[in-house]
Every structure is written in C-alpha cells, then in structure tokens.
Amino acid sequence: EEAKKKRHIVMVPIMAQGHIIPFLALARQIQHTTTATFTITIATTPLNILHLQSAISSTSPNQIRLAELPFNSAQHGLPPNTENTEKLSVTQLVKFCHSTLSLEAPLRSLISRITEEEGHPPICMISDVFLGWVNKVANSMGTRNLTFTTCGAYGTLAYISIWLNLPHKKTHSDEFWVPGFPQSYRFHRTQLHRYLREADGTDDWSQFNIPQISHAMKSDGWICNTAEEIEPLGLHLLRKYLQLPIWAVGPLLPPAVLKGSRHRSGKESGVALEACMEWLDLKDENSVVYISFGSQNTISASQMMALAEGLEESAISFIWVLRPPVGFDVNGEFKEEWLPKGFEERMRDSKRGLLVHKWAPQLEILSHKSTGVFLSHCGWNSVLETLSYGVPIIGWPLAAEQTYNVKMLVEEMGVAVELTRSVETTISGEEVKKVIDIVMDKEGKGKEMKEKAKEIASDIRKAITEKGEEKGSSLRAMDDLVRTILS
Ligand code: UDP
C-alpha cells in the first residue's frame, strides 16, 4: 500500500479537445503498459472534467482520477463558462491562453493536498507544452516534470523554434531558415499564421508562447504522440534541439484504429454514421474524397465557393463536413447561400456528394475502403488517423502547427500535396480540380502517394504491435518511459 501511494502521476493538459483526448489516451496507455500500479490524476477545469467523466465511464473501469482546478473565464474578459478553445476567435484565444496561468495556484493546492494525504509528492507531473509554468510548480514541490506534446516531432520543433527565434523577423526574404532544421531547409512566410507573422516578442502571443515554451524546455523529458518509424527526421532534430530524452509513444489512438480494422465507435452511431456508411458502401474502392477541417477551423466564404465548384467540375465523389465560413460561428447554423446555387440538391440527387453538417464520424469514414483521399487541415490527430488507415492527403493547413505538418507530409513522407494554405488565399475551382485529379490518379503521383501511405500505415502498426518477445518501437518507448518515471 505504501509503495502504491508513492506512484501518483498528475497530468495537466491545456483545455482544448485535441489535447485532452490524447492526454487521456496517454494515461490509459501508461496503465496498460505496466504491472506497477499508478494512480493517475488528470487536473483540469470543471466543465472539462464533466466531458472527461463521460469519456471515462464509457470505457472499462480504470484508475484514472479527475481533479477540478477552479477557473473563472469571466475574470479574464472571456464569455462565462469558456473552458475550451472551441468557438474562440483569435483575439479570445490569446486571452484564453493567458488565463491558463491562473490555474497555477489551484494546481499548487492540489499537489500539496496529494503530498499531505500520501506522505509524498506525486512521482511525476506530465504537462502540456503550452503550460510550461507547471515546470515551476513541479520543481518547487519536489516532483519530476515531463512535457507531453500532443503534436508530431517535426511540427513541434518548427512551432517552438519559430516562436523562440522569430527567424522571419531577421530577414526581408519570404523564405527563411529555422534553427534546429538543416541549413538547407527553408520555411516560407505564408506558412506562418497572421499573428505569428506580426509577432515581435512583445505582443500578447509572444508574451504567452515564449515563456511557456522556455519553461517546458526545462522539464526532464518530452513525450511525443508519434512513432520513430514515421518521423525519423523530426525526432532526430527535436532531440538535438532540446537535448532532452524524448519518448515517441504514439500514435495514441482508439484501439480499433491501431488494429487497422474498420472502426465502429458506437458513440457516434447516430444518423450521420448510418448515412455515411450506407453512402460509402455504394461507392467504388478508393473513389471518394473526404473533406474536413477539424473541430476548430473553417475556410473563407469565397474559398468554400471555389471548393464546391472544383468538386462539381471534377467527377469525384465526396463527403464534405460543412461548417459556416470564417467570420461566422463555426458551430452555428449553415446557410445555403454559402454554396453555389442548387449545389446541395444536385449533389444529393446525383449521389455524387454527401454533405454532412458540423461533425462526421471521421474514423469510420477513413477506415472505409471507398475512401481514397482526405482533404484535411492536417491537425495532428487527423494526420495520425489518416496515416493509420493508409489514406493519402490533400493538405489545406489553417492554424497552429498545421503548415509544418503539411511540409513534412509532402517533403519527407511523400503522402500529400498541398492545395493551398490559410484562409487568406484566393483559389479557383480549377486548382481544386487539378489537385484532385493528381491525387486520385491511379497511375503516377496518385499511385505513389497511395503506396507510401500504405507503407506508413504498416510502419505504424509495427510500432504499436507486440509479436512474441518483440515489441514495436512505441511500446518499447512506453516501457522506458514508465521505467524512468519509477526510477
Ligand atoms: N473529428 C471528427 N469529426 C469531425 C471533425 C473532427 O471525428 O467532423 C475528430 C477527428 O477524428 C480528430 C479530431 O476530431 O480526432 C480533430 O483533431 P485534429 O487534431 O485533427 O484537429 P483539431 O480539431 O484539433 O483542429
């Protein structure tokens, strides 16, 4: 009992769905990995606790505890009950980031309480790269601190190095070198989000990102949601840059995805799921483009129009998850006027396109044999999911580290083409059609991309599979991580 008490891990994700879910997956994976009993506590704000409670109770019983960190968004000039990045404008998002600093005091109380109850501080705190301040808490309370970046290694390195060095500010050229990458590597100004392009070290974004990343770089090691086989370059460079141990334990995805079998979540078994599956069942193998920009992002009204025109001009079948364009509530009501006149009806009548509003069962769609390519914003979870099923990508990055993910998918992996980037570009239906034609081509580049994507899917499976004595790289990294935590 005494030994058990010593093994308490406290996890602190930033309050965004794309971070909380991988943190929960990491917690589960730690418990799967070892016979040593850990108590794992995920500490977050009340509304996020509610979501986590339902996510946890829907699966088998486990040892994951939830601890509430009181949070009052209104005190930070945000709408009441804002506890998640979803629905926030860019201006609100930076305020939200700064507001997370207010969690330090409640987190200190939680650690004190645990220390008092158990006679020891927790053995480890695993914190989000955006909550670098947790490192100060861990240091002063005698606990080890590891950073979990829910992104890939390449994207993480580009993201942190560009913020810390602001290399685009040191040149007038559109292209620039990013410290940490080989000298021959070039990034482009258009790969930077507007607020990063304008950052100068004193603006609100810099004032949050730079110190948080710097603190996180003082932690005892980093955990990445990726695998050695799929990101050899990214992991090599990140290790060199951070000079810290890095454990590539991913991809942390639902178990069905990892087996490569057709995914059935059960949870999403609503009309959308049935409709999507029935519709896909009628299509030929690899013939459908699945289009989604994730849970937080959306494109501009004129881009949406061009995308619809391009889809209509190419003879392609598609599933498109529709959200209102930039400037409107992403989760709000969709209006017909945002699409070409009669588009929805024509697509429905011809069964060419399935338009899904707000949310689609992405894993089920990607795992269906009719799905041939994913037009994606390249959020890291979407990237891992599509690669796990061997589905190549048309990239249209919009925010965060997505442009860097696409660069890697194109240049290092050869599984993607980039259609355009950001919401600021003007694109035409012809460009859309051209890219779709390339990727859907059963010969040439389209074929090559498909083969590479299949290879990566097989690498991913190897990384997370155990065959007799032999364990895949991500499982070995997980063993090593647990050993380190226990040491
Ligand atoms: N997702 C989904 N249906 C949708 C949109 C998103 O199931 O219509 C899921 C998707 O499978 C992924 C996550 O939401 O697991 C999105 O994470 P990602 O990192 O790709 O992008 P973000 O939403 O964080 O920008």
Description:
Belongs to the UDP-glycosyltransferase family. Its EC number is 2.4.1.-. The protein is an alpha/beta fold and 487 residues long. It is 45% helix and 14% strand. It is built from 20 helices and 17 strands. It has a seven-stranded parallel beta sheet, with helices on both faces. A six-stranded parallel beta sheet has the order 12-11-10-13-14-15, sandwiched between helices. Helix 14 links the parallel strand 11 and strand 12. Helix 13 crosses helix 18 and helix 18 packs across helix 19. The two termini are 18 Å apart. Bound molecules: uridine-5'-diphosphate. Uridine-5'-diphosphate (UDP) binds next to helix 15 and helix 16.
Can you list the strand order of the major beta sheet?
A: 3-2-1-4-5-8-9
Described by the principal axes of the CA atoms, the overall outline is: globular
The N- and C-terminal alpha carbons lie at a distance of: 18 Å
Major beta sheet summary: 7 strands, parallel
Number of helices: 20
Regarding quaternary structure, what we see is single chain
Low-confidence stretches: none
List ligands, each type once.
uridine-5'-diphosphate
Quick tags:
487 residues, alpha/beta, 7-stranded parallel sheet, 6-stranded parallel sheet, 14% strand, binds uridine-5'-diphosphate
Question: Secondary-structure blueprint of this entry?
Answer:
Blueprint: H1 2-6, E1 8-12, H2 17-33, E2 39-44, H3 46-57, E3 64-68, H4 90-99, H5 104-118, E4 124-128, H6 134-140, E5 144-149, H7 153-165, E6 175-176, E7 187-188, H8 194-197, H9 204-216, E8 222-224, H10 232-242, E9 246-248, H11 255-259, H12 271-281, E10 288-292, H13 301-313, E11 317-322, H14 343-350, E12 353-357, H15 362-367, E13 371-376, H16 380-388, E14 393-395, H17 402-413, E15 416-418, H18 429-440, H19 444-463, E16 466-467, E17 470-471, H20 473-486
Parallel strand pairs: 1-2, 1-4, 2-3, 4-5, 5-8, 8-9, 10-11, 10-13, 11-12, 13-14, 14-15
Antiparallel strand pairs: 6-7, 16-17
Helix pairs in contact: 7-10, 7-17, 13-18, 18-19
Bound molecules: uridine-5'-diphosphate.
Residues 18, 292, 294-297, 321, 359-360, 362-363, 379-382, 385 line the site of uridine-5'-diphosphate.
Pfam family, one: Glyco_transf_N
Domain Glycosyltransferase N-terminal: 9-254
Protein name: Glycosyltransferase
